[in-house]
Amino acid sequence: MPTVKNIIVVASGKGGVGKSTVSANLAIALARNGMKVALVDADIYGPSIPTMFGIRDERPPVSVLGDKEQIIPIEKFGVKIMSIGFFTKPNQGLIWRGPMAANSIKQLLETTEWGDIDYMVIDFPPGTGDIQLTIAQSLNLTGAIIVTTPQEIALADARKAASMFVTAGIEVPIIGVVENMSWFTPKQHPTEKYFIFGEGGGAKLATEINSVLLGQVPLVMEVGAAADKGMSVFSQTEKSVVTAFEDLAEKVLSAVEV
């Protein structure tokens, strides 16, 4: 994809750590910094990006140039979005073997009319399977971001996700680690922090994989409720999570420049 300058994948070893939340809001934060941004939902079996952007019922138009068809991505919040979720029914499960799923995401990437893009964010499915390997070996990736929560069970799986990027034949730079659900602060007690999933896990993982901790995102109930309504963190009244993603975008931009 010669019109795409930088491709960043967001990965985790397990589901439920907030990888899609990080992918979506990082993409929006980059767009708010004036970047031309694309977001690819590579989770074939459980696409959540259309719901998080409130565009689940949208269907991307198709343009024809000669004998070649190109899919036009859906755009919202300044981000061009593509997901297999646009082409399936909400309750329809894709019963595909790994190679078929990997080929479908590759075709989705190749047949979409992206235009000029400064940053493409790819939301990986959990784990280290066919889809991840196909993307890592097919595209010239700028780097990877590892998402985890502080508790040890999430760290154990995040280590496995990180190990894939340093494997011979893949060798994708790890930009850093994002620790999600780092602490909870009740509205009634804004100066208090409750580390309900543990403390320091993201920093520990970053040190183990010789990387950096890009940021810590607090656990805010509004974020999940807003995502179900297709709203970003930037519509929230709780500014701690807004600041977290603004800082994350700045650190990613700086890291990519380096």
UniProtKB/TrEMBL annotation:
Tell me which positions the record assigns to the signal sequence.
Answer: none
Against PROSITE patterns, the record matches this protein to: MRP
| UniProt entry tagged with the keyword GTP-binding | no
| Pfam family membership, one | ParA
Instruction: Mark the transmembrane ranges.
Output: none
Residue positions annotated to bind ATP are 13-20
Mind listing the GO molecular function terms for this protein? Answer: 4 iron, 4 sulfur cluster binding; ATP binding; ATP hydrolysis activity; ATP-dependent FeS chaperone activity; metal ion binding
Q: Tell me the keywords, alphabetical order.
A: ATP-binding, Hydrolase, Iron, Iron-sulfur, Metal-binding, Nucleotide-binding
Which InterPro entries did the record assign? Answer: Mrp-like_CS, Mrp/NBP35_ATP-bd, NUBPL-like, P-loop_NTPase, YlxH/NBP35
Q: Which GO BP terms apply?
A: iron-sulfur cluster assembly
Main role? Binds and transfers iron-sulfur (Fe-S) clusters to target apoproteins. Can hydrolyze ATP.
Q: Which family does it belong to?
A: Belongs to the Mrp/NBP35 ATP-binding proteins family.
Q: Subunit structure, briefly?
A: Homodimer.
User: Any idea what this protein is called?
Assistant: Iron-sulfur cluster carrier protein
Q: Which organism is it from?
A: Williamwhitmania taraxaci
What high-level taxonomic lineage is stated for the organism? Bacteria, Pseudomonadati, Bacteroidota, Bacteroidia, Bacteroidales
